[in-house]
Specification:
This protein has about 210 residues and is an alpha/beta fold. The chain has helices spanning about 5-10, 10-20, 20-35, 55, 65-75, 110-120, 135-145, 160-170, and strands at about 40-45, 60-65, 80, 95-100, 120-130, 170-180, 195, 200-210. The chain is about 35% helix and about 25% strand. An eight-stranded mixed β-sheet has the order 3-2-1-4-5-8-6-7, with helices on both faces. The chain is globular, with a radius of gyration of 16 Å. The mean pLDDT is about 95.
């Protein structure tokens, strides 16, 4: 089964989850805004239906699902259909790139990160939001993966694994914050975030493009 099929065929269910879990969603947005706020000329890779790009002020993105891309375009976003491993953008096009819960669906993470490096301007930022495999939330997703509409084909990673691949692909000076503390069903207000990882289920990493090839 293609990794895009669950998203292609269940867009309304996908968006309803965020509506029903609005405090989880808003907590994730708050953490992401900490690193995105003030940045201009960005692109979201794995933009989906635009639920993160739109409130974060990002108007450009790419997604492998035509149906998701169409929904994002209906929200006024400029979305191309494609994969992270072969981004349809010229070298040094953007000041920052965002991936939110996208790394778990990549076919080749190292190749994708190299593509992000290529399209970023010198000193550009790569911002990644992910479910931490080592967290209680990550372990719960793994245990229930076979019953999940969207995560059947997902591969969850630890923060340490992501940091290692970032280093290998010449991204430097990582900053890490975390949010989503406790069971998702018990989150009934917008949570704040704190530095580091290990307690929160949702982690955001911001790292800077190195200068190996520039």
């Amino acid at each position: 089964m293609a990794k895009t099929n669950p998203f292609e065929n269940n867009i309304d269910q996908y968006e309803k989850w965020f509506e029903d879990s609005r405090y989880v969603y808003q907590s994730e947005l708050k953490a992401l805004k900490h690193f995105v706020s003030g940045e201009k000329n960005g692109v979201e890779i794995g933009i989906g239906s635009g639920l993160f790009a739109k409130p974060l002020g990002i108007d450009t993105g790419i997604d492998p699902s035509p149906a998701m891309a169409m929904r994002a375009r209906e929200k006024g976003l400029d979305v191309q259909i494609g994969k992270a491993e072969a981004l349809p953008y010229t070298d040094r096009s953007f000041n920052f790139a965002l991936m939110v819960t996208t790394v778990c669906f990549l076919d080749d993470m190292e190749k994708s990160f190299c593509e992000v490096w290529r399209i970023l301007k010198t000193g550009g930022w790569f911002i990644i939001g992910l479910i931490d495999r080592d967290s209680r939330l990550g372990q719960k997703y793994i245990m229930n993966r076979t019953n999940s509409t969207f995560f059947k084909t997902a591969e969850f990673y630890t923060v340490s694994q992501i940091l290692q691949i970032l280093d290998q692909t010449e991204f430097k000076n990582p900053e890490v914050i975390q949010t989503l503390f406790g069971d998702l069903k018990e989150i009934n207000s917008i949570q704040s975030f704190e530095k580091g990882h290990g307690k929160g289920g949702f982690v955001v990493i911001k790292s800077k493009k190195g200068d190996r090839y520039d």
